[in-house]
């Protein structure tokens, strides 16, 4: 396995666990965008439909199941268990402005025009913008807990590490996330 890919997977898993444990330990989802978490759950659901059609490896299968379980567990904490601490007023990003263009683009630009391929392509495009409701919420409230910035930092690393040749846009994204992390901590 590629060391960059493995590092990216570890950072992604750490980001999700940080978020889940923050909510669980504080018994509050204050400062967390439920809309971003729903979008990430949609990303994992549409990307990992191949769990039912093909087997790649035990590692691959376990990671997919863990991502799905943690994504839906986080959503249940936000919208059910700790719903009293969820700030729907600040989580006001209109996700339809993300979903409609992403859906349209996934039909227009994909590898093969099959349902699984279109859904996989949809997940790739959606993942690139799924964090926007969280960033919008932070901008709107003007504050973020340090644990939330740690989550964003590891999520930024996850998006960069699987690519051994770092492009200028990847580098700019990491610098932006790092600056946000430093300012808010």
How do you describe this structure in short?
The chain is mostly helical. The chain is about 70% helix and about 0% strand.
Question: Mind explaining what this structure looks like?
Answer:
By secondary structure, the chain is mainly α. Helix content is about 70%, strand content about 0%. The longest helix is centred in the first third of the chain and has 24 residues, at about 5-25. It is globular and about 40 Å long.
| Beta-strand fraction estimate | under 5%
Q: What is the helix fraction of residues, given as a range?
A: over 70%
Query: Overall pLDDT, averaged?
Result: 84
* Contiguous uncertain segments of 5+ residues: 165-169
Structural class: mainly alpha
Q: What is the succession of H and E elements?
A: HHHHHHHH
Estimated radius of gyration: 16 Å
Largest sheet: none
Number of strands: 0
Give the overall shape. globular
How far is the first residue's CA from the last residue's CA?
34 Å
What is the overall number of helices?
A: 8
């Amino acid at each position: 396995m590629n060391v960059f890919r493995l590092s990216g997977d570890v950072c992604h898993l750490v980001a999700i666990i940080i978020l889940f444990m923050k909510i669980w330990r504080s018994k509050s989802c204050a400062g967390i965008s439920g809309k971003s978490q729903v979008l990430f759950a949609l990303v994992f659901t549409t990307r990992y439909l191949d769990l039912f059609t093909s087997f790649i490896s035990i590692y691959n299968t376990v990671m997919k199941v863990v991502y799905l379980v943690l994504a839906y567990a986080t959503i249940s904490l936000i919208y059910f268990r700790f719903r009293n601490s969820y700030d729907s007023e600040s989580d006001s990003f209109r996700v339809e402005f993300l979903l409609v263009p992403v859906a349209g683009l996934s039909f227009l630009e994909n590898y093969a025009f099959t349902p699984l391929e279109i859904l996989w392509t949809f997940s790739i495009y959606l993942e690139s913008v799924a964090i926007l409701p969280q960033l919008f919420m932070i901008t709107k409230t003007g504050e973020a807990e340090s644990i939330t910035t740690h989550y964003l930092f590891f999520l930024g690393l996850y998006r960069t590490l699987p690519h051994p040749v770092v492009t200028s846009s990847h580098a700019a994204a990491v610098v932006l996330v790092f600056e946000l992390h430093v300012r808010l901590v």
